[in-house]
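One-letter codes give the sequence; the integers encode the fold. A sample entry reads:
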Amino acid sequence: MSTTALLDRDRVRELFDLRGSYGAMFGGGYQDDPYPIWHRLREQGPVHPGVVHELTGFEGPAFFAGLPEPDRPHFSAFSYASCGDAYRNPEVFASSTEPVDVNNGPITALNSMLSMGGAQHRRSRALVQPSFVPAKAQWWIRNWIEEVVDLLIDGFADQGRAELNVDFCAAIPVLTITGSFGVPVEQALDIRAAMQRPDEIVEMLRPIVAARREAPTDDLISVLVQAELADEDGVTHRLTDAEIYSFSVLLLTAGSGTTWKQMGITLTALLQRPDVLAAVRENRDLLRPAIEESLRWTPTDPMFARYVTRDIDYHGVHLPAGSVLHLCLGAANRDPERWENPDEYDITRKMQSSFAFGSGAHTCLGMHVARAEMRVGIGALLDRLPNLRLDPDVEAPRFIGMYERGATEIPVVFG
């Protein structure tokens, strides 16, 4: 594996930069800080009629789960309590309104475990959960993360400067997740490019699935081909190809699309605070709270949606059956009822759970892998790039985006 094979810089920029066509789908055109408006909305009431981006004053395109669906009433929750209560009541606040039939429906990230509920979701999640528990983090680090991180840093370590957001952060998760599926490096960006065209992803996975059925190895596809799923009658069977493709499309889409932005947010927060960065460099035990505080302070995915299955009076607002409740997790993560001085990035604060990875049955499956990628990536930068700092001669990074937030560019110098 070479750095040339790892990274086609122009294509990575095209596929990941929030200022381009990719970011435009998720409100990348939003350039402001939404938190003052979210604070004001939360102070006015925990739940409001309307959609988060419209209530924030952003009229640009903003695609996300539960949107646009103009025929449904829409509501948005902004407090920690109102978001948490929805997560704790999946019977009323469901992740989907349609039944999931992987074998007879389309292969998409929505027609997958992501939209399942109840026993169906529990059975499906149990198949892959063991590969994503904290104890498995070393499996990911040893097999994929460390090699990818070291090879990327090799590509710029002798140059004295680098751009870390797209050229470093974006490459790590996509190469990690595709590597765990046995996808050749040269196809990794093809997987990312086909995110909205899952049939193309299936065609790339088809020969790998067939090969793993014949001879399993130590990767995620092998876990899936050997897994057994119990049906509603308790009869177990091996996963069909359609079921494997459903898992794969979901995991590849999620695994390549989120962590890089959160790593960039964390790096930006540290680089903008040289004293905090120096403290983390000297005491690596501080890296964990630095990452956790970043997840609370500016989660890259600050909104999720749930469908209301029956009429309910909810935190002072009546929600009719069939409506959509948007959970503004970014606002909830800065609720002063839970955190003191919530707008401050403070790695010394007492750690409490936030909604950065969601909550409840649909808590992010890959959160421990994401943490491992951030910990190994940022730690390696601090190990190998002395006197790492923002480049004073280039525009400083800014946070942009509505339903996916992240840094623009992170230009640094070192040495």
